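Page header: ASSEMBLY MODEL / two components / 465 residues total.
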Amino acid sequence: MANGTDSSEVLENLKLELRRGCLIVAVLAQLRNEQYGYTLRKALADDGLAIDEGTLYPLLRRLETQGLLASQWREEEKRNKRFYRLSSAGDLILKQLLEEWENINASLNKILQEASL
Amino acid sequence: MNDISSRNIDLVDRYLQAVRFWLPKTHRQDDLIAELGEDLRSQIDEKETELGHPLDKAETAAILRRCGSPMMVAGRLGPQRHLIGPALFPIYEFVLKMVLLWILVPVFIFILGPVNAANSGGNFGVAIASTLGDLWFALFIAAGIITLVFAIIERTNAHLGVECKWDPLKLPPVRREQPKQASRLKAVCELGFGWFGLIWLSLLPHYPVLILGPAAAFLKAGPALHTFYPLILALSVVGILRSAMTLARPEWIWFPLASQLANSVFVLVVLNYIIQAVSRSTSAFPFVMMQDGAHRQLAAIVNVSILLSIAATWLGVCIAAVVQSWQFMRYLRKRTPGGHLPESLRAR
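Prediction written out in full:
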């Protein structure tokens, strides 16, 4: 590593990679209750997982194409908004993902404990 | 709707129009733009609620600026696109390097360049410029065609079939490059031929027939040959010493590599010196001249032939020096920590 700037850049890239998988789980979990794009973004940001428009909307489309989300355009407060919610397939996948998340977390904790001995 | 709000909406619409321009024209374009517009308007609403007044142009622009430039936003919103994907890119890069650097550049420099120079009627500057121009054009066309072919393969997924067919058992064995000791047979041969060459060179002043053949009856050595004869003799002696040292010290792995390189540099210096001296010479017959006034044409042909041979030797030694430098650098690199490992297993 050449200098501090490089090291912070590496850290940022690693954090992005780490967040990428978590964001999918977070989005699916948030959409257990129906929301439109902006409120979803706000809710994620309020919980500490800020996500920009350019990342969220393609992700929502991808999850919808995979059948994990359902969406519909509806008028609210005199404006057309696209509301998303978890589909039944998405609900099942979310449960499996959360289970996998628990397993990964347990494994990681075990590895960290072993390493600290 | 008040004036400020309508100005804000106008700015947002202009922004969305710019994003739309960069998005691929698919059925999802309207959908994406509508959703992005809704997100931006929600952000503006929230900011207005927070500040307690409608946003002015600068405040709206700040929100749009935070969102990113239209081209960048469109790039993130649209599907991930690439001309040549990561699976094909290594072979694309390999083919590009092979064709451009190892085929086109050598062909132009070592074949077409000299042909252009020979046909230029002595106008070498024009010949070099023309060769470089043609080389640039050929590199450009070749790179374009290769890129196009690989883009088609990427689009048609033709590489997927090849990827499925690979067999681990057919992988080449790991290269184990270990420094080899110089071959004794090679050194003995070099020594033998070196002595033979030295004897032949020593006899030349007394028996010109050894180099001129039957023409020795009417041709004799010119001033340049007399001047450079001691240098050529010295080169031959150095070559013999080098072969003898290689034979006596086979464990000096570095010696043949370093001495070959030094020898090539020495030869290049001598050849340069000869070429420069001949080009400055006022004599029409620098290497060989007539015994009497006759056979001027033959003497001229022999002089030109020798000059061309020297130029060709200079070119050959240049190439040899480059190769030898590379071999020597590779040897030095292998002496560094981890250098003993096979190249494929070494940390990059």
